[in-house]
Amino acid sequence: MCDQAPKFNGMQRRQLLAALIGAGATVMFAGCNQAGFSPATSSSGSDDSSDTVGGACVESANETNGPFPADGSNTAGDGTSTRLDKVYTGSPIIRSNIAESFSGVPLTLNISLQNVRNSCSTLPNYYIYIWHCTPTGVYSAYTASNNGGSHSSSESYFRGIQQTDSNGEVTFTTIYPGWYTGRAIHIHAEVYAGLDDASPIKITQFAFPMSINRAVAAQTSYGYKGTSGMLDNTADNVFSDGTSTEMLTVASNSSTGGYTASIAVRVSV
Q1: What is the pLDDT confidence band of residue 153, given thresholds at 50, 70 and 90?
Q2: What is the pTM of this model?
Q3: What proportion of the chain, given as a percentage, has pLDDT over 70?
Q4: Distance set, CA 233 to CA 8, 43, 211, 214, 215 (Å)
């Protein structure tokens, strides 16, 4: 089912092409198996200036958690606490399928959580919260006047929390994000030691290879905005200093008609 995407086992490095496990990961939300869309060639981000760290055990870059975290640390969401279990009015969105009813280019996101203080060994039983915008650049839980939707805290699309499994891994099923003025295509991520913790141990963001960004953004028939005005990663205010620890490895996924993206989030605990 859509919220039961297959886990991958023993991914110790972000260079693993998670497309190897794509078979059988059928995506059942609207927009799956898109007719007329041929994914761009698989890419590890080689068209960006700084994409890999050569397999070295390096901590993921720290980034701003805004805008639009909806975890109580901004103007939407619960608003009473920064605890992860208050992301939505006291009810955490613990789920793997975060697309809800939205259509777009399918994306399976595999994350491996690793500890740089222990030779990048994996970390089970931590919580990862991710969020991203729609194909048109809109976030849930925020009003239209603030780059959001229409119902503030009642919306939850493209947001999800999962606990890492025994291999330190989680898989989210979603669609490829869009872009909005001033930012390259990206996904936000926070890592928490516990569901009731007030402070994340890591706040970071994920970048996509520009060649695939351009291929997806051009799919206007699925609601994407096209490429006119879209920023390159090198011009983005978050990624312009490099994407060596934030670049997703992206591969075509023949099962979904979209992509599978993988990354190791490395923390110091």
Answers
A1: low
A2: 0.82
A3: 72
A4: 28, 15, 11, 12, 15
